[in-house]
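Replying to the earlier thread about multi-chain prediction with a worked example.

Input:
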Amino acid sequence: MVVNAKAQPAARTIVQKYGGSSVATPAKVLACAQRVAAAVTGGSRVVVVVSAMGDTTDELLALAQAVGGLDNKREVDQLLATGEQVSIALLAMALKTLNIPAVSLTGRQAGIGTELRHGRARITDVEAGRLEAELDAGRVPVVAGFQGTAATGDTTTLGRGGSDTTAVALAAAIKARECEIYTDVDGIYTADPRLVPGARLLARISYEEMLEAASQGAQVMHLRSVELGMKAGVPIRVLHAQRAGMQAGVGGTLICDLATANQSMEHRKAVTTVALKTDIGRVSLEDLPSRPGVQSEVFKRVAQAGISVDDIIQHEVEPIGAGTGGERTCNLVFTVDRGDLPEIGPIVEAVLRVLGSGRSRVDLGLAKVSAVGAGMQSQPGVASTMFGALADAGVTIANITTSEIKVSCIVPEADGPRALRAVHEAFGLGR
Amino acid sequence: MVVNAKAQPAARTIVQKYGGSSVATPAKVLACAQRVAAAVTGGSRVVVVVSAMGDTTDELLALAQAVGGLDNKREVDQLLATGEQVSIALLAMALKTLNIPAVSLTGRQAGIGTELRHGRARITDVEAGRLEAELDAGRVPVVAGFQGTAATGDTTTLGRGGSDTTAVALAAAIKARECEIYTDVDGIYTADPRLVPGARLLARISYEEMLEAASQGAQVMHLRSVELGMKAGVPIRVLHAQRAGMQAGVGGTLICDLATANQSMEHRKAVTTVALKTDIGRVSLEDLPSRPGVQSEVFKRVAQAGISVDDIIQHEVEPIGAGTGGERTCNLVFTVDRGDLPEIGPIVEAVLRVLGSGRSRVDLGLAKVSAVGAGMQSQPGVASTMFGALADAGVTIANITTSEIKVSCIVPEADGPRALRAVHEAFGLGR
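Result:
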């Protein structure tokens, strides 16, 4: 996209976000500054958001652990926020050595207000006055990602995907043309190229598809920033931080609304991307009494433990010899991150005691293959194409879940990559 | 001093400041927390001020240098402020593991307002509301030293002696009983014990004497925090951070008003402490025209270059064969830090050109021995005792300057330690 220097300021404004690996060393900070400088000299008004350098966060957490403070969430936030503060100062310095006027801003200085909830605060408001003033003065604001300030003045951090969320929130607040997320991959692919060699880079993908793909295992973007982008209507471009030819408004994958995403595809396919999710833990509750309140009893306790549930599948079981007066029971299956399984055990046991019947089983060796595409709403046969592909590949399907724009199959983990390639092939997504 | 838990809150409140070497490792942070905890369980309300851990500041400056940003003072401040932010978080964590409720506060969160002058901002005001609220809630505020915030929201640092200054400023704002500066020495001595083995620890010293001693080379306390303590009437106790028996209100040296300082000494001596200052550069301007405006011409230019002048000595010279009509000239001698000499050369040359006469000489190999004592105002013969001691030791005196409470002699640098011991001995300061 050619930038028109006479366009309205907002139309010339972009947000660029660089992750920790892009600023891991002083040399990389300088390389990063050159990329920003190129956008500025190309006529863009640029706001930069950066993460902490390389392993800084881990090093800081090690210090916290050494004084027994890892569970002191307020102080962990105060501690971790220093990581980004170092990056912004260094990047602002590096820009100035390239004769690009720049000014570093902490979360607080950039006006990022959050809830008072340490470790995973949500942004409540962005007071963009300072940011706008710096842009109007011709300076590049370099903003600390991942952090904000509660109304009390306390430092908060935003949790996983926090820096991307900062970038999208700022882009929304200043009505930027787009938010560019620089990463170590070229963009969003039709499948993970490490698993599917023929995977193809997508020029565009809709927010909805990206959300489904991310929740089904595509790891490039965190759900939260995509959700925020969708809500605020901020186009998000995912690009490679080191690759030549990637630049403001060009290259990578644009995550945008469905109408814009569809424009670029002559033959819109039913499926846009396929994903594989591993590290799945499956909990099966069998022979539960089929009566109102059972599900709520289960998931209330799981939620109270702070565990996120992925898929939920339930079906009723008629008693053997229907009409014999035996009670109907139900089987309830749900998946969680494998790491949450140890905590799930006691919760499930407690539920079964309360319900007075049923038994539980936990499975580890599973993965989930998903096909995602906004086009599948209008094209029949997507599910059967997928099942056929898996059958031809000799893959057993353990569970199936569907949404309007995705079909997911739980399969044995060992078959995961093979299943992914078969589905990718079946939908003609390769090069 | 026994703390009365029923005393007014302010009377039970102390500020404790720990330097970078006291918090250099997680183990030292925990040791530091134990000292704070002892004061709290002893009934004190404690505010803690800390510096950055060990070599953190140097490491951060190395990063800044690597991106060519050392001269970007705003960003250097943004960068360096992270050092103290790490320390406060860790110390607050460590206190909590000892069951002492604590809360870390950055300079901004602690309400420390400064000028917008990066690298050496002065504190303009302390908004102590949060600090008081935390103390009233029974928590120990752990405050980042060395930093503050300008009215613009920009991060500033206070420059040399900054953390001590933070501690004294907070003590003044909350009307603390005293401000304790924990260091790696036992307190203030009658002379530097590394140079004078018989030097004795002083229980008390007046602000005025401490200021003279510090400006004459005693390195324990920075002038600035002592000045602030004097102005605000905050007693400052200098103690050893690792030594047993040092605790809130006990041990070390109390820097206080003259009346209080005198109370503790049965036989107040004329001289309290002697000091040696090395790294002196001496500039001699000879045969300057003796007319109004000469001195101002010289020192205006020196001040414009940001160079601090230590002593100034001037004397007039009658022309040889007085009454022959020759003009009187004057010799102007001043001392500066040796490191400033390279900058002084061109300034002096420019001045001589403007004045139209005179010549300059620069000397390096000099040191200054000083005797400091509020008692010398009422006791005659201090100067002559000092000169006699130096004569007996065979030390040549190059220049002499005096103030109401000190006598200083510039001597060859090689003779410095010997001269210091001779003067210390002559005033009977040893054990």
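Residues 12 and 44 of chain A are 5 Å apart (CA to CA).

Feel free to reuse this layout for your own posts.
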